[in-house]
Amino acid sequence: DVVMTQSPLSLPVTLGQPASISCRSSQSLVYSDGNTYLNWFQQRPGQSPRRLIYKVSNRDSGVPDRFSGSGSGTDFTLKISRVEAEDVGVYYCMQGTHWLITFGQGTRLEIK
Amino acid sequence: QITLKESGPTLVKPTQTLTLTCTFSGFSLSTSGVGVGWIRQPPGKALEWLALIYWDDDKRYSPSLKSRLTITKDTSKNQVVLTMTNMDPVDTATYYCAQFFGGWFNYWGQGTLVTVSS
Q1: A98 to chain B, closest Cα gap in Å
Q2: Which residues in chain B have their CB less than 8 angstroms from residue A48's CB?
Q3: Does A76 touch chain B (CB under 8 A)?
């Protein structure tokens, strides 16, 4: 199994300040087609997960440009340039490269 | 517009079999590359992928639960059914179905909370 390890697990942030979440995989997420199927999801309280970023750095339609994804191989990062109140929730990374799909443990973002 | 909705019992007893149905619209499970998966989330805990069925009827299961899971599809009804045998209180969770395409889950249902208790 590919283990996805997120840090930190809890992230208190002041409104307007940046935030960064790390996701590390136990194996390379580069697929044979050259793509890296690392995705980020946001789950607001009481809601279903919503995809934010796909293939490492591609923002989904409607996702504010304060969200950005980066990384390669086994080391990935989700950054929020200026945290807003609506960003509160849990963030998960997920890999779809290896057939056993795995999620990270989640990072809970809260406002200080 | 793509939508998915989970349905099934909200309460099951230990040792019973759980049957959940995902009814979707806005896409076809006969389209090459498309799949529908199930993911669960125990209260306050992380997401756990359970099973996935592809347009060509290829099926994948989480190894830790494979012996208890069966996933099937009815393309004509736009439905995917997940059965999980021998339910236990630790299986209490919100169960989501989601469209899988391109290496990720694109659209998610609202989820259905299943409680396992006698």
Answers
A1: 9
A2: 96, 108-111
A3: no
- What does DSSP say about strands B79-84 and A107-111: parallel, antiparallel, or unpaired? unpaired
| Torsion sign across C-alpha atoms B72, A100, B41, A66 | negative
Reading the block at residue B50, the tokens are 């359970």
Nearest-neighbour CA in chain B from A97: distance (Å): 7
Which amino acid is located at A46 in the chain?
G
Q: What letter would DSSP give residue A97?
A: S
Contact B10, B113 (CB under 8 A): yes
Cβ neighbours of B48 in A, within 8 Å: 103
ω before A8 within 30° of 0 (cis)?
A: yes
pLDDT tens digit sequence for B32-77: 999 999 999 999 999 999 999 999 999 999 999 999 999 999 999 9
Q: Which of A112, A69, A76, A95 is nearest to A2 (CA)?
A: A95
